[in-house]
Design brief:
The longest helix has 29 residues, at about 95-125. Helix 2 (about 95-125) runs antiparallel to helix 3. The protein is of the alpha+beta class. It has helices spanning about 1-25, 95-125, 130-155, and strands at about 30-40, 40-55, 60-65, 70-75, 80-85, 90-95, 160-165, 170-175, 185-190, 195-200, 215-220, 225-240, 245-250, 265-280, 285, 290-295, 300-310, 315-320, 325-330, 340-345. The chain folds into four domains: about 25-45 and about 275-345, Beta Barrel (conserved putative lor/sdh protein from methanococcus maripaludis s2 fold); about 45-60 and about 195-275, Elongation Factor Tu (Ef-tu), domain 3 (Beta Barrel), CATH 2.40.30; about 65-95 and about 160-190, OB fold (Dihydrolipoamide Acetyltransferase, E2P) (Beta Barrel), CATH 2.40.50.100; about 95-155, Helix Hairpins, CATH 1.10.287.
């Protein structure tokens, strides 16, 4: 019984629409075929969007170098490689000049000790003064210190293997086998993967609205499914001369591997949230009189002036004489005029 009643009502509605359409055709009025969507009320985020790259925190970046000149004899890693703590990274051989410095320092100590023994023997025969003995002792002390310095530098080792001081990611390799880097050259740059940053640029006019602690949705510009939450750490006080934007540093969650070092990302900074009436972006039209949408009421299109607001994920906030549930035209609206008869596209 219930199903029969529903079917009768549906038949009556369809017949009514058909009669209206037939009447319009009889009067020579056009009937537009449209697609509609209901006006919705949802949470809207007022956000600022910036673009940048994933980088390492400066305090979590370590440069491995040597205090002496050497020759690279073996390399185990390449940029982008993940390594464990203690993993071998690069092997170097002490340069000939540095090895010579160690040999020279050792020879100087042997000579200083022999000279001290000679002066002390002369002093016992009253052939050398106390001052000469003290001078010889100082020579030994200086030679011992010079040799200790060479050992501390590592020039007494023929070959040295630099190992990873912590688990991390090799971000740069500064030499290849056969190279002879001078003292202090960064051979390997290692970053801790547990704490990455995203540095994004925003328009200078937006700087005053962003504060540390604000939430940021960070995603790859090529695949928004690769997304992680972040927090604003720092807002810079000057315009980056290269990008002409203000840099914002965003801290990413530790241990997240979704976004690799160097990934180009989009950062959406949430400023505030509120409820609002929204329509699909395709429903919003503009002309010389301003923004408007068409709604379908009693089989006719009616123009409603609106004021656009925030845009989120394909929908636009609108303010105007609209009510929740109004059927807003999303397709075919460019051809509509006030009061024009419409019918829903088949299959909708």
């Amino acid at each position: 019984m219930m199903r029969s009643t529903i079917n009768k009502l549906a038949t009556i509605i369809v017949l009514s629409l058909c009669l209206r359409t037939a009447a319009c055709l009889a009067e020579g009025q056009p009937v537009a075929v449209v697609r509609t969507a209901p006006l919705a009320i949802q949470e809207l985020d007022h956000a600022i969007t910036g673009y940048g790259t994933v980088s390492a925190a400066p305090e979590d970046t370590t440069n491995l170098n040597l205090p002496y000149a050497a020759q690279v004899t073996r390399l185990w890693v390449s940029p982008g490689q993940v390594v464990k703590k203690g993993a071998p990274l690069v092997e170097v051989a002490v340069a000939l000049t540095e090895a010579t410095n160690f040999i020279q320092a050792r020879s100087n100590l042997e000579f200083a000790r022999a000279e001290l023994a000679r002066v002390e023997a002369m002093a016992r025969r009253q052939m050398a003064t106390r001052a000469q003995v003290e001078q010889a002792k100082k020579g030994v002390a200086d030679a011992e210190q010079a040799l200790a310095t060479q050992r501390q530098l590592g020039t007494d080792n023929g070959r040295t293997v630099l190992k990873a001081p912590f688990a991390g990611l090799v971000s740069q390799v500064g030499a290849k086998p056969g190279d002879r880097p001078p003292a202090g050259t960064s051979l390997i740059q290692l970053v801790c993967r547990d704490q990455l940053l995203a540095v994004i640029g925003i328009e200078p006019e937006e700087r005053g609205r962003v504060r540390p602690g604000m939430q940021v949705a960070v995603s790859s510009v090529f695949d928004e499914r690769m997304s992680v939450p972040g927090l604003v750490k720092r807002v810079f006080g000057m315009v980056n001369p290269q990008t002409r934007l203000v840099d914002v540093t965003v801290v990413l969650p530790p241990g997240k591997a979704e976004l690799a070092l160097g990934t180009q990302v989009k950062g959406v900074i949430a400023i505030n949230r509120r409820q609002g009436k929204v329509v699909p972006r395709s429903a919003l039209l503009r002309d010389a009189n301003g923004a408007y949408v068409f709604v379908v009421r009693d089989g006719q299109a009616h123009r409603v002036a609106v004021t656009p607001g925030l845009e989120n994920d394909g929908v636009v906030e609108v303010k105007g004489a609209l009510a929740a549930g109004d059927q807003v035209v999303t397709l075919g609206n460019y051809e509509l005029k006030e009061g024009m008869a419409v019918r829903e596209e088949a299959g909708q």
